[in-house]
Design brief:
about 240 residues; alpha/beta; Rossmann fold; 9 helices; globular
Amino acid sequence: MSVLVVTGTNTEIGKTVVTAALAATALAAGRSVAVLKPAQTGVAAGEPGDAAEVARLAGPVTGAELARYPEPLAPDVAARRAGLAPVGPKEVAAEAERLAAEHDLVLVEGAGGLLVRYDEEGNTLADAARLLGAPVLVVTQPGLGTLNTTRLTAEALRARGLVCPGVVIGRWPAVPDLAVRCNLSDLPKDAGAPLLGAVPDQASALPPEEFRATAPRWLAPALGGTWDAAAFAARFPA
């Protein structure tokens, strides 16, 4: 079973676009891909959610949602306010396993950060990852403040016995400032895991064909791409 859980150090940092880059890279290698969004919040019925955005950018993936809540809130709060049932880790794990039986790769994209609550019992994406025995890729922001949130996320993963294969920077700026450039060398230290890519800011605005052709260049070989951390850092000396 090949399942990769994608979490972030916060919201609005590029998790969905990184997930799309992972999917596009896998598709380019001839692998079949499913994308599972356990709880989609802030999107009304009939509107495209994150799984649909991944498909738009990456190409033919199987998209799945377990629940959708209209307000842009943490899943447990959004479910309670909507009067709808929450999603628990057992449901997430069961659906990921079902998809994994039919696809080469299943990407499970969380909502917000790692420890955002999904139900009234306080279960999180980390609990689903533990049930699956799946690694958890961390998407982080590039700028000031990222070292702290990345380290907190990595320590939370280790405390739960979860494997973090690495960190991908979402929304890499066109003109990185000093803090961003310094973070290239400091992020792996704080994460205790390698830097495995950097996806440009506004990558989602690219035409889908260009996105698919370029995505492997944003991700390291461990994720199926060609991105080289040392060469990338050399372009942006601190």
